[in-house]
Design brief:
Mean pLDDT: 93
Bound molecules: 1-O-pyrophosphono-5-O-phosphono-alpha-D-ribofuranose
Helix content: 10-25%
Distance between the termini: 14 Å
Structural class: alpha/beta
Number of strands: 9
CATH class: Alpha Beta
Low-confidence stretches: none
Order of helices and strands: EHEHEEEHEEEE
Number of domains: 1
Oligomer: single chain
CATH topology: Rossmann fold
Shape: globular
Radius of gyration: 17 Å
Amino acid sequence: MARKRPREHLKVLLRKSQIRRKVRHLARQIEHDFHGEPLHLVCILKGACIFLADLLRELELPVSVDFIAVSSYGKGSLPSGEVRITKDLDHSIEGLNVIIVEDILDTGLTLSYLYRVLQQRKPRTLRIAALLDKPERRLKEVKADYIGFEIPNAFVVGYGLDFGEKYRNLKDICVLDSVEP
Ligand code: PRP
């Protein structure tokens, strides 16, 4: 007899109202740090797209955006640490105030690689904004300047984060568990 697949169970970790408040708070911190100077947001596809869209609309500064996509290998128990750019930025960042916008800082492999690559392109300033931080999983040290929430080591989905491309459209951020049928 064919085995039934485990059911997926979602438990809310962060409600949309909490997320909205936090994004506003991060925007105020950024405005305070940049004193009306123009900002260039670099969104890491795809998970950060919703955080980017909300943060962008909160910022009362002249702001431009660009997108970059990476793929990483060995994200299982033995990460190889290899990260590759699959879609590069459309524009030069030389001389700009750049903030890398990321949904989640997990092992740190993606951000430590991208920070190094983007730093070589001579931005005026380079900072990192990550909505979620899972410090327990860190393999590479990364200094994020703006962090929304520190979360436990659980698999989270929603607000841009996916499981096999599902759940990115959830308004809350939820912990995903598999339940045996
Ligand atoms: C996730 C997330 C971050 C990265 C963080 O992306 O969106 O970009 O992993 O992990 P790390 O700190 O361990 O490097 P994913 O590869 O799932 O792609 P996606 O954003 O397109 O869903």
